[in-house]
Amino acid sequence: MVSFLYPFKKLRKKTRVALALREDGGGGPVPIAGSLERSLRTVSEALGGSNDLVLRKFAIMLNRQPCQAAVVYIEGLADPTNLMESLLIDSGELQAVLAPAPGVSPLQLIREHILKIGNINGVSDYETLYHSILSGDAVILLEGETEAIAAGTGNIRDRGVTEPSTQAVLRGPREGFSETLRTNTALVRRKIKDTSLWMETRQIGEVTKTDVAIMYVKGIVDEKTVKEVMSRLDRIRIDSILESAYIEEMIEDETYTPFPTVYNTERPDAVAGGLLEGRIAILVDGTPFALVVPALFTHFFQTPEDYYHRADISTLIRLLRYICFFIALFGPSAYIAVTTFHQEMIPTPLLISVAAAREGIPFPAFVEAVLMEITFEILREAGIRLPKTVGQAVSIVGALVIGQSAVEAGLIGPAMVIVVSITAIANFVIPSYEMGISVRMIRFLYMMLAASFGLYGILIGTIVMVLHLCSLRSFGIPYMAPFAPFIAEDQKDNIFRLPRWALSTRPRYFSASNRHRQPERPRQKPGP
Amino acid sequence: MNWLRKGLALILIASAAAALSGCWNRKELNEISIASAFGFDKDGGNFKVSVQLINASEIAAGKGSSSGRVPVVTVQESSGHTLFESIRAMTETTPRKIYGSHLRLLVIGEDLAREGIARLLDLLSRDHELRTDFYIVIAKGISAKDVLQILTPLEKIPSDKLYSSLVSSQRNWGVTATVDLHQLIYDLVDKGKDPVLAGLRVLGNPELGQTEMNFQSASPPAKLRYQSLAVFRKDKLVGWLNEEQSKGYNYVSGELQSTIVRLPCPEGGQLAIEIINTHHRIKGKVEDGRPRIDVRLDAEGNIGEMECAMNLQTPQSIRWLESKLDEQLENSMKSVIAQAKAYRADIFGFGSAIHRADFRAWRRLEDHWEEAFAELPVHIAVRAKIRRTGSVVESFLERMGDS
User: Fold this and answer.
1) What is the DSSP track for A463-513?
2) What is the pLDDT of residue A25?
3) How far is the C-alpha of A216 from the C-alpha of A283, rounded, in Å?
């Protein structure tokens, strides 16, 4: 492992050096100068004279003395209307309100008597000042003061709480996360109104300084996992975090695996559900996708909706998803193996039909399958980025050209079209896009194995895959739990989804200390 | 390093996995010809092998097009000193390799069967490609090749028709026998049992049966029909059973699932009883060094048809019918046992029953079992029950007689 990653390690060291250069020569925080002019000049220079920086100078009567002051903010990030209103009230009015109060500094006066804004912080060095204004605060500087006031006026344009587009549900809340961290944490808090919902924040990204919130339910979560998550987050040295995927890649247990070990979701209810199981959510400013860790194999086959429908149908649908997982994984490869190696395994009438369909096809089954699969991937990739109106054209062309003309022209057998289509559709049944990608990639491997070794190759490939899956861990928890290691108790909410009253305990691996969701007795099974 | 060792192990495992895989013959579907039936005939001292190949593209083309039916099979033949040779020599005439896994039927010509079939079977059981679930039949009075060439009106693939009509006649009529390769070899090896195979005949004109006339006319000029059973002594065909005896064979061997038994009415006319369930037991005994066999048959039947006026409402009449049925079944069984004794072929496995009962006595008997079988006393006990009379009790014929 060590030797293998050596070149990357070296690279990382270099980056760190480069990042360090950006910081001021190591002299520590620079205090704000007493002179207003100088302070403003420093700020303006630091931002390279960007013209969205607003430096609004004004005079204010404090203790019957005019005092030079300035408000500094970034236009667009901050909305200082309220702030200005409270600062620039009529001087006469102010004097009527405020009798001269000796011993009260102008700063204190503004802070305690004038500002009608909740979130106020003192700022005494430039670094903090920059960060404040760049996060949307308006900073008030006073002549002769070495401290400034940062008022929370952040007003970043928000898309609003809309329906999540990646995880739509038939039944269930229709709210989804948006790009603002505060909105997102509020959405989660609204689901869990308890003091035990704790949140820690970090700023990650040397340049982007992105806010990252780590949420968990104290008392349910395993403290060791929290510590592990925090230490992994603290270890991140990177210039930018533009999406939660950056963090995902930096904290996941194993990079060289096709399987996702971090769950992401756009849905507050999915996050809340995870938190209540004793998992940890990582919310990142600027993206609607929150991460939930630890994430196990089985989580990628569950949706929040499973808990909103009746238990029986949820169980059956989960079963269907696993079946689809196997179809998507083995569909084309099984077809290749059976038709080129094991013709004796097909019932005679079926073999005759398949053979009849294969008559006159110029390619071997493997080439045929790869052609079709690649065509499908092209269509999918083309369809994703196109506007909706053009996207329909792609599907028409795809259906007509691939589905019909290729068969009629005798290039592709109709049986292969069926196999590829059912594979593609089965792939869409897997609720998690990440898991779907894994399946798509591995499918090609299996096709190659099937083309060269038949079912034997598929079997070997499966063994290797299962071994790999069993070796994976997500934040120290075996990835295949509760299948392997098998936890009989946790089967209640694995492939099966038992009725709510039977889900009385939390998954064993996540919540070591507080396992009971419901009081043990009396059993809450509804009486007759 | 650890990684190096891991990598080496991985490469080793991968190469071992590649080298240790068993079958290594990738063959595309359009590189093989699916054989649906084999036919073996005698050709002087050599074998003549004919094979019915499925023409898959014709099956596909037939769908939807109204251009009329074309034969979807083709029959190829070749000969050689050994079977394997002759089958491989067939590549001289066919463009593709013949693929035998989906064989439905093996037809053996009567001439060849009289000489012995054992030597044919080794290839079939040895070759990994063949499954053992195809049925073996004997072409009666015609060569196997001619049988394979007959086209059939209902099923596109003639051997499909032969396969399914063999299964359904065995199941519903009980005068044929479904014997697959496994069973046949079992019977050949077992000294206490001789094999029986279904006989297949061509009715009508075999020449015309090979042309499309056979599926263009409503009543095809040539028909394939299973008729009677071929009796073997060891591996040689020694004779045939008639229909009644064939049924009797199935009663004794317990192969029968359902059949129709015809009985005379008390006052003229006939009635037909459908046997729905039989249960048999063959028990061997050796008493004072002399073997004997008890055959017991429990049968259940329904009244299927009556062409006479008869009162069925009394238990006496049913009991009378049951006794008649007993008699009839017993006669069939007696007849077939007598015939088998005449052929000196122990097709029922009585020898095995003796073997199971007393293996010491069997050891003494097995060398001259043929003679012993011919004099073997066989006691038959039949108990038939009539369960239902169909959806009417009395025949309307009775009322017609009243008026």
Assistant:
1) HHHHHHHHH-EETTEETTTTTTTT-TGGGGBTTSB--GGG--B--TTT-SS
2) 46
3) 11
Q: How close, in Å, is residue A484 to chain B by CA atoms?
A: 23
Percent of chain B, pLDDT > 70? 95
Residue type, A483: F
Lowest mean pLDDT among A63-67, A508-512, B349-353, B391-395: A63-67
Task: Give the gap in angstroms from C-alpha B383 to the nearest C-alpha of chain A.
Answer: 41
A411 — contact with chain B (CB < 8 Å)? no
What is residue A92's predicted lDDT score, i.e. its pLDDT? 55
Residue in chain B nearest A5 by alpha carbon: B3
| Cβ within 8 Å of residue A498, ≥6 positions away | A311, A315, A492
Q: List the one residue out of A130, A120, A293, A282 whose CA is nearest residue A201.
A: A282
Give the whole-number percent of chain B exceeding pLDDT 90: 29
Q: Where are the beta strands (DSSP E) in B131-258?
A: 135-139, 196-204, 222-233, 236-240
Q: How far apart are CA A504 and CA A519, in angstroms?
A: 8
Using 50 as the pLDDT threshold, list the residues of chain A that sit under it: 1-3, 17-26
Q: Which residues of A touch B160 (CB under 8 A)?
A: 348
- Entry pTM: 0.83
Structure token digits, residue A312: 């029986």
* A269, A172 Cβ separation under 8 angstroms: yes
Place of tokens 């603290």: A234
Mean pLDDT of B267-280: 88
Residue B1 pLDDT > 80: no
Task: List chain A residues with CB under 8 Å of B60.
Answer: 356-357, 359
Burial B188-203 (b: 16+ CB within 10 A, else e): beebbbbbbbbbbbbe
A-interface mutation test, from B15, B26, B101, B157, most A Cβ less than 10 A away: B26
With CA atoms as reference, the chain B residue closest to A4 would be B3
Query: Smallest Cα–Cα separation from B214: which of B94, B33, B73?
Result: B73
Partners of residue B128 in chain A, C-beta under 8 Å: none
pLDDT in tens, B224-262: 889 889 999 988 999 999 988 999 999 998 888 889 998
**A360:B57 CB<8 A:** yes
CB nearest A356 (choices: B22, B60, B160): B60
Q: A352 and B21: CB-CB below 8 Å? A: no
Q: Does A7 touch chain B (CB under 8 A)?
A: no
Ramachandran bin of A254, using left for φ above 0, alpha for ψ from -120 to 50, beta for the remaining angles: beta
> Does the CB of A364 have a partner CB in chain B at under 8 Å?
yes
pLDDT score at A21: 44
**B314 pLDDT tier (thresholds 50, 70, 90):** confident
Which residue on chain B is closest to A368 by alpha carbon? B28
Give the integer Cα–Cα distance in Å for A124 and A146: 6
Q: In chain B, what residues touch A1 (CB-CB under 8 Å)?
A: 2-3
Q: Does B28 touch chain A (CB under 8 A)?
A: yes
Return d(Cα B382, Cα B295) in angstroms, integer. 8
Task: Kindly report the nearest CA distance between residue B143 and chain A, in angstroms.
Answer: 26
- Asked if B99 and A339 come within 8 Å (Cβ–Cβ), the reply is no
* A67 phi/psi in degrees, rounded to 5: -130, 125
Average pLDDT over chain B, rounded to whole?
Answer: 86
Inspect the interface and report whether the beta carbons of B59 and A353 lie closer than 8 Å: yes
- What is the C-alpha separation between B373 and B344, in angstroms, rounded? 7
| Two tokens, residue B286 | 């050796």
Q: Using DSSP, state whether A242 is helix, strand or coil.
A: coil
Q: Beta-carbon neighbour count of residue B206 at 10 Å?
A: 17
Give chain B positions within 8 Å (CB) of A412: none
State whether B29 and A460 contact (CB < 8 Å): no
